[in-house]
Amino acid sequence: MAANRIRIQVNTADTVKWVGSGGDELLTLTSLGAGAGRNGALHDWGASPRSYRYWFKMVIEWDSAPALGEVVRLYIREAGIEGSATNPTNDDGTGDVAVSAEVKLSNLMHVGTLLADEAAANIVTAIEGSLESGARFFAPTVWNGSAADVLDNVATTSFVEITPIPFEVE
Length: 170
Fold this sequence. Notes:
Layout: E1 6-8, E2 16-19, E3 25-26, E4 36-39, E5 43-44, E6 53-61, E7 71-78, E8 97-98, E9 109-115, E10 124-132, E11 137-144, E12 159-164, E13 167-169
Parallel strand pairs: 2-3
Antiparallel strand pairs: 1-13, 2-12, 4-8, 4-11, 5-11, 6-10, 6-12, 7-9, 7-11
């Protein structure tokens, strides 16, 4: 193997799951209404050195049949590179709390938009991708941008997972 290569080293044991029940951190997406959002509890990713690249997956299940093209947007809310989780990038608090107004999303990092690709209830839809953050503390924020549809009323069907992807030097 050639020397001086930089590769990624994924360890899914380090995945953090934000969900309404049974996960690592709380994110209550149960019956999240149209035009409403939820901030997940901030997670402490640890002191330096730590990864700054992450893989995300957001899984959504609609309770009612959405119109094709309805959206759920995923953001990352950060709060400091070291020390304590003070002054997150919106001022709604550090825990699993409602987004107080859509304008609060303006200072967050937008990482993905899920589009309803079936006009049917109880269909699981997901998006995945990578993101970069140097923050020690961060968490997902989810915004239901649909016109009238709510997310599923079961605490475990809609969730966000984030996995660190550290670099490994050979």
